[in-house]
Amino acid sequence: MPSSLLPAFLRSCSLLCGLLLWLVGCSPSTPTPKYTIGFSQCTNGDAWRQAMLAGMQKELSFYPEVRFRIKDAHDDSRLQEKQIREFLNEKVDLLIVSANEAEPVTPIVEEAFNRGIPVIILDRRTTSKLYTAYVGGNNLEVGKAAGNYVGNLLEGRGNVLEVLGAPGASPAVDRHRGFAQALASYPGLHLVAQVHGDWKRPSVMQRLPAVLRQHPDINLIFAHNDRMALGAYQVCKQLGLDGRVKVIGVDGLPGPHGGIQFVQDGVLSATMLYPPGGEEAIRTAIKILRHEAYDKENTLSTMVIDSTNVLTMKLQTEKLTSQLQDIQRQQRLLQQQRDTYASQQTVLYVLAAALLGAAVLGLLVWRAFRANRRFNRQLGEQNQEILSQRNQIQEFAERARVETEAKLRFFTNFSHELRTPLTLILGPVEEMLTSGPELPSAQRHDLGLIRRNAQRLLQLVNQLMDFRKIDVGKMPVRATEGNLVAFVREIMDVFERPARQRGISLRFLPAEPVIPLWFDVNILDKVFFNLLSNALKFTPDRGHITVSIQPVPAERLVRVSVEDDGRGISDEDKAHIFEWFYQGQQSVAKGSGMGLALALGLTRLHQGQLSFTSQPGKGSTFVVTLPLELPAELRSANAPVVASPAFALDEGIMPQLPAHEAMASLASGGTSEALVLVIEDNPEVNAFLTQKLQPHFQVSAAFDGATGLRLAAESIPDLIICDVMLPELSGLEVVAQLKGDWRTSHIPVVLLTARNAPEQQVEGVQAGADLYLTKPFNPTFLLESLRTLLANREKQREHFRRELSVDTATVAPQRVDQKFLADLTAIVEANLNRSDLSVEDVARSLGISRVQLYRKVKAVLGTGVTDFIQGIRLTKARQLLLDDELTIAEVAYQLGFSSPSYFSTSFKARYQVSPSEFRAMHTTAG
């Protein structure tokens, strides 16, 4: 080394040693803070706040040069103001404020901003614009998203209750305003009540029950956060409303007690995602401290989390949590490396004099810091990638939800549109086939061909609907306990005749006479019907079909096998036999390709298995394996509601009468005085119904619900036939208004519709319909049903007449008709002394016309208004004649008779004794 460089080298070594000694005195595991950020929050007990704080801590792990201080005011705005002032006195570099109430902290926030300290408002805005940046969700958009979702969920019709946050809180105000604006787009939705909470569950548990009792017709509850939504669900469960009232909330936090878990468990129908914004607040703060470009308004996006995307959201949040744990683990490893580095510095303190060791240590320090920066940069890139993936997942989930809803609406509307023309095809065909033996055989054959193919089309429509229900999870299992052997035997009876016509031997071999099993009648009916129909189709004439049932107690299973000796299944077709719309390469009897696929889907829905074995040329065997017991959630305590048959053989699918019985029924007893009102928007179906009913009844028609209601109130018909799918006012709403109006409450209503699902039929009956018929319908069956309803109405009139003959006071008005009779009787009794009491006077007191009163009394009691008034007077006369202090003439004038002689004549005509004889008989008895 040149001597001129030696002093410089020694000075460098001395400086390096001094630097090493100084590094040893410092703690390398804790870098010197460069910035201090103060965070003032007004509560720490809220799960949403905890999630926000967790997001801040995660983001701060990338910035070791930042010192982060937290002060919590615990819902005390005055204490928060004091704590913010303490931060100002400590001269923090940046201030983040999350307030509970906006107005109390606005002055101190403005003071901090005016003093040059950057202020970030997190989540809840202040009433001033003097702040550096805002980070938080758009509560107005959250409310709008909730309102739009409620409109779609309730199909634009229903009653809604809103559970608001703390009064005066800006999130509560904005969410309510956005929710109300969205509901305004749905005239059928009504915000009938509000409950003010304080963002916590106990307040809802205390205040909500009274409101729900006042409004029992609530369909949905919208709570401003998930904790209050959980309280609303628990209140509904206590009141027995959890099966009817839907609950949605706001926040959508992950974890076992978060909104995402509540949606997955079925506690909430949906929750609005409201990101805490902790990470975004720290990122914005770093940009401000580093004098980088930033946005003053940082509005976080929201989305709906419901059953369509909750699983995706949960998986995503779990993945984020897992990655956060990986980051924390890597941070711990990094800390261990720093601790190792500190121990190495201690060793270097002993070897400080060794220049070579110092140089090596310096190199290690440089490389460690470089690796640290690279590692932090990689973590940042991973975090950005995760956020990007999350946004993509949200977009995909929303797109899938919209597409699923569009498909379901398409199939539903498609089914309805097909059923209406099928009604116009099958109705006249059935009428012609039952018109008598004079129909030529060639025409009868052609009509039978038309009927079979129309029924085949209806079968395909039903299969398509079942396919869509399984695809979107809309087909529930309602199992009841029954005898599987008897159930299968009943299905086989349907195939007995066509098998006998082709000489096919149909054998039934149950291992035991009774095999108890929990099963859904409607689901297994379609499964076994499909398998037997398939076997009958591919079994040659004079072949054999064997159905056997074998319980397996050791495995808690039962196996039902359907074996045939047909052509079998080729090896090419075996791999695709259960695929939708697959018909097979060697199939001669072409079908829709949906039967076996539908049977497989229904069997799996029933928690069973469907398998098969086959040899080409020797036949096939299909085996249905079912568990002996089903979980409690799949069981139903009610008797099974058997749906309309989904499949049909050549005999047809609709109720039919033999030809001679149908003719006798049409020819006998058609009451031409009865008036039938038809409400149907399809002109052809309306004309068809009018044509079939006019030979037997008087018929009037309407093409929409509003007109039908008006005609019903004016003419008081004896019976109403109404379609469900009507423009503007639906058939269910028409039925509800008819049954709620005492003028029309007595009129039997027949709902005629293409909606054939069991739950839709139950909905129609619950609305008040006396009969629910699905399209296509049998005209003969419809006529017989109308006659039965009218006959039952006559029996009801006799019941009311007997009630009125016992005493002048009618029974308690528990129904609308009884309420009408009670009001009518009260008016008559109040005017008994008026000899000039007329029908017009009574109608005027009731607020209706004379004609409406006459038709109402005639429909309910089968008698006229004048006869009803006379009956009340004569019944009252029997009571007054028992009083010896009143003469017969006084009784007559007191009850409004024009003369004692007219009173005596009327009394004797009614009771076969004169008033004087009646008094003598009872006086003698006394």
Topology summary:
Blueprint: H1 6-25, E1 35-41, H2 47-60, E2 66-72, H3 77-89, E3 94-98, H4 102-114, E4 119-122, E5 133-137, H5 139-153, E6 157-164, H6 170-183, E7 188-196, H7 201-214, E8 220-223, H8 226-238, E9 246-251, H9 259-264, E10 270-273, H10 278-289, E11 297-300, E12 304-306, H11 310-350, H12 355-433, H13 441-471, E13 480-483, H14 484-501, E14 505-510, E15 516-519, H15 521-538, E16 544-552, E17 557-564, H16 571-574, H17 595-605, E18 609-615, E19 619-627, H18 659-667, E20 675-679, H19 683-693, E21 698-702, H20 705-715, E22 719-723, H21 731-740, E23 749-753, H22 758-766, E24 771-774, H23 779-806, H24 816-830, H25 839-846, H26 850-861, H27 865-880, H28 888-894, H29 900-911, H30 915-925
Parallel strand pairs: 1-2, 1-3, 3-4, 4-5, 5-11, 6-7, 6-8, 8-9, 9-10, 14-16, 20-21, 20-22, 22-23, 23-24
Antiparallel strand pairs: 10-12, 13-15, 16-17, 17-19, 18-19
Characterize this entry briefly:
Residues 822-921 form the HTH araC/xylS-type domain. The protein has 926 residues and is an alpha/beta fold.
Characterize the structure shown.
The chain is α/β, with parallel strands linked by helices and 926 residues long. Among the domains are: 35-131, 3-Layer(aba) Sandwich (Rossmann fold); 139-273, Response regulator (Rossmann fold, 3-Layer(aba) Sandwich), CATH 3.40.50; 476-584 and 591-634, Heat Shock Protein 90 (2-Layer Sandwich), CATH 3.30.565; 672-799, 3-Layer(aba) Sandwich (Rossmann fold), CATH 3.40.50; 815-921, Homeodomain-like (Arc Repressor Mutant, subunit A), CATH 1.10.10.60. 53% of the residues lie in helices and 15% in strands. The protein contains 30 helices and 24 strands. It has a six-stranded parallel sheet, with helices on both faces. α19 (683-693) links the parallel β20 (675-679) and β21 (698-702). It is flat. Mean pLDDT is 79; it is low at 1-17, 23-29, 641-671 and 804-814. Its EC number is 2.7.13.3. It catalyses: ATP + protein L-histidine = ADP + protein N-phospho-L-histidine. This is histidine kinase.
